[in-house]
Structure formats: structure tokens, C-alpha cells
Specification:
By secondary structure, the chain is of the alpha/beta class. It is built from 13 helices and 14 strands. Strand 6 and strand 7 form a beta hairpin.
Amino acid sequence: MKIAVLPGDGIGPEVTKAAVSVLTEVADMFGIAVETAEYDIGGSAIGNFGSPFPEETANACLESDSVILGAVGDPAFDHLKPNERPEMGLLSLRKTLGGFANLRPAKAYRALIDSSPLRKEIFDGTDLLIVRELLGGLYFGEPRGSSGNEAYNTMRYTTAEVERVARVAFEAAVVRRGKVTSVDKANVLETSQLWRSTVDDIAKDYPEIKLEHLFVDACAMRLVTDPKSFDVVLTENMFGDILSDEAAVLTGSLGMLASATIGGKIDLFEPVHGSAPDIAGRNIANPLGAIASVAMLFRHSAKNDSAAKAIEDAIDSALDAGFRTVDIASKGSQTVSTDEMTDIIRRYAVENAGTSRAYHAV
């Protein structure tokens, strides 16, 4: 596999280094040939190329089998117009790759119960998947702009855009627990009324799947009062952005959350967290979200569930053994650095795979 690596800004280079380290280790264990190369995006690209998403990076991504992204965002560029800032590099990347479905799992790790502000009986056993539409809505709708004392954005969706992402959610529910919760604001927004009616139509093709509709505010509340009631959560772009960040409370930290963007020319894998410039370069960032994103790469792009499971089991083993980065540290745990956590995951991945060839690869 040819993989483009876009470290980006802040802690992005640190967590992508960790992710690539685990990627190459596990790929070797399972006989998967990988080739990685790094390219600029975001603030680093503005500094080197004058653009948050230079043509060289775009071409390299389109010529790859998958893309791994670290994080984008740098306060040094906050003085620029919104369409010139590092974050525009991420939006341009998503549009170039064409992935319309963003998969964001949120799982309650029992070892991290003390890291979540939720009570154990609410938190324990949660395992949900947010399917976020990624190429429509307010982030991409036209017209948009500002003039004087006025600014405006357009939320826009077509039936076809909703249909394709809805099918991803229903297909995911088929292999999970058979339930889709579609989230909208149909009591106020015409786009949400189109969303709801379209999802109802797609549901007819999946009679075995239970479908419920929730307004986004009710969903936000239920995520922290009854998260175990969710299986697959389907929603539009901005709602999905906010709700998936809220779901970080289920794991105790944004640093734990992985994501995959599928459905386009090239799949994209990235942790949910931002660039966190305040901790960049200190070797304390949590790499588990980025490493879990590599597990999703093996599952969705390499079509190798065994390699994905080796990584996921390694994360479980590391947490069960009490290893924590500072963001998820608790009384009695052992706080480790970014690099130390990465080495621990690599070691457990090898041990869990249980082959002599993998053991000697360490």
C-alpha cells in the first residue's frame, strides 16, 4: 500500500509519527507491504508553499491508496481570512479525496472509567458509531461570505447526498446491533426535513434495522445521559462535528477518538482531536486516536480485520495494564509519554498477534 502521510500542525507530527510506527510494525507482522511519504498541509504548508493545501500534496494524495492526517490548525495564522487559514487545507483535502462519509467510533474503555466525568452505570458498555456526512451543509454550501456588519453561510443538501451517506449508516448497522438514530433539526430547518424524509425512504431497503429520529439538541443530551441507547448515529456535517466531539466524554479524552472518511477516490484516516498547539513538542500528546485510526485503515482500506484487531487489542491491553498519557491519567495509573505509549502499543500488538515472526520483528 502506498500511503500519504500529512503530519500537519501542532501535535500532528507527533501523533502521525506514532501512527506510522505502529502501521509499519503491524503491516510487517501480517505481510502487508507499505510505503509511506510525508507531505505538507495546513500551517506548515502555508509557510512552505503559501497555500494550506498545495498542489504537490493534492497530487500525492490522489496517487496513494490511503491518506493519514495528523491535525490542522495554527493560531499564528488567525489573522488571515477564513478561506486562507490552515483549516481550509483540511476542507480542501476532504473535497479533493471525495469521501462523503466520516466514521467516528466512540467506545467506553472499562479501564478508563475513572477518566470520564460520567457515572460508571451510565458510561460502562457504550459502543457507538457516528456516521457524519462530510461534503455538504454549512461548511461547503454556497453562497457564503461577509460584508461590513453582515456574514452568511448556506446550509444545503440534495437527496442524493443524503441517500449515499444514509446507506453507509444502515450497512454499518447491519454488522453491528441493528439500529440507526438519524439526527436532524426538522422542526426548524428545510434541509433537515429533506434529510428526514430521505432517510425514511432508505430505511425501507433495510426492514431489519430499527430507525429512530432525534432532534440534535435531544441527541446531545442523550449522549451524556443514556449513551448505551445508541448504535449507529447518522447526521449531517456540522451536527456530526459537534456531536462526535461531545462523544469524547465517553472515552475521557478527544485523544482517544479515531476516524475514517470513506466513499471517495481515496480513504482518509485521522484522529478526531485538533492540533493542540499548547502541548506541541512536549512529547505528552495522546497518540491512541491516531493509532486507532491506523486500525481503521487496515479494516477499511487494506481489508484486513486481523491487523486492525491486533491494534485495537493492543490499545485495550495497554489501558488494562494501567498505562496512560497525561490527558487520561488517574490515581494509580502509570503516566507515559507519547513515544513510550507508542512503544507499548507496538509491543502489545506483537504479543497479541502471537507469531514468532512478529516477535522477532521487534
